[in-house]
Amino acid sequence: MAQESAASFFKAIQQDQALKAKLKATTDAETFVKIAEERGYQFTTEELQKQIEQMSPEEVAAFINPGVGPRRHLVAR
């Protein structure tokens, strides 16, 4: 169920440019999940990671800032 919530959240991101911009500024998975919870989506960082693993790198880059330099990454490199 939570995995479906994560998938639904990613669909919502594609339709909401303000949300997409807010998430691009996010540097850690916990903050990403908190933003989702504020919008009524319930899933854990582990479920988030599982959903990200099912997506192409292009899809992930569309709404997650992959980071530069010493910044932390939502997606492990």
Unreliable spans: none
Number of helices: 5
Radius of gyration (CA) equals 11 Å
Biggest beta sheet summary: none
Q: Which percent band covers the strand fraction?
A: under 5%
What is the mean pLDDT? Answer: 81
Silhouette: globular
Q: Please give the share of residues in helix.
A: 55-70%
- What is the end-to-end distance? 27 Å
Order of helices and strands: HHHHH
Based on DSSP secondary structure assignment, what is the total number of beta strands?
0
Which structural category do the helix and sheet elements fall into?
mainly alpha
Helix-strand layout with pairing:
Blueprint: H1 2-15, H2 17-24, H3 29-38, H4 45-53, H5 57-61
Helix pairs in contact: 1-4
Account of the protein in words:
With 77 residues, the protein is mainly alpha-helical. The chain has five helices and no strands. Helix 1 (2-15) packs across helix 4 (45-53). The longest helix is centred in the first third of the chain and has 14 residues, at 2-15. The model has no long low-confidence stretch (mean pLDDT 81).
